[in-house]
Amino acid sequence: MPKNSTKPKKRKTLRESKKYPNLDKTVNTKRTRDYLDNIQYINGAYNKKGEKVIRGLSDEEKAWLNKFNGEYYNANFDQDDSKNLHQLQALPEEIAAQRDYIRDLKDDLKKTKEYDDYKNLKEHIEQEVENLSNMYPRKKCTDARNSRNRDLLNFGKATNKVKFIPWDTSNQNTIGRYDFDPTDFDDDDEDLD
């Protein structure tokens, strides 16, 4: 054994060095930045004359908003559910049972031959998924994050393959020049998230 073996200190990332990382667009993923719309008034809002019209948030309010943004936009939850803003509304066993029930319903849906039965079963599954979302609020956050990650326009903007042009600067003659090539979105592109 080496005598003075010490592990090298792990360097803090830029995100870890921020007090409220979920309130800073620069340390969030490019896919998340556009959705962080509630951070514009953190330090207060001023009118054109420079007069404060909305006060800045206190440290306690910033901590709460940081926690909320971390859960809602990034689906970043603590292992200890009592520390989360989006807490479980049922026991983990009940949530697992609900998931199993939905899985069984989906299996039955695959076997269904009649259109009316299929339609009724599909509606029943949607109701049960909604019940699961109410029992398990984290599901809404993770589903929303996954949906944002699948969004092609969001992906294109994050990878600089799509450029958004304001309507007031474009006209009918210039719109055709901004068409993009669908092959720009190949499957072998790396995911930034």
Low-confidence stretches: none
Strand proportion: under 5%
Structural class: mainly alpha
As for the number of domains, it is: 3
Overall 3D geometry? extended
Number of beta-strand segments = 2
Q: Tell me the major beta sheet.
A: 2 strands, antiparallel
Give the helix proportion (percent range).
40-55%
Multimeric status of the protein: single chain
Rounded average pLDDT:
81
Structural notes for this entry:
It is a single chain. The protein is an all-alpha fold and about 190 residues long. The chain has 3 domains: about 10-85, no CATH class; about 90-135; about 155-193, no CATH class. It has helices spanning about 15, 30-35, 60-70, 90-110, 115-135, 140-150, 150-160, 170-175, and strands at about 45, 50-55. Strands 1-2 form a two-stranded antiparallel ribbon. β1 (about 45) and β2 form a beta hairpin. α4 runs antiparallel to α5. The mean pLDDT is about 80.
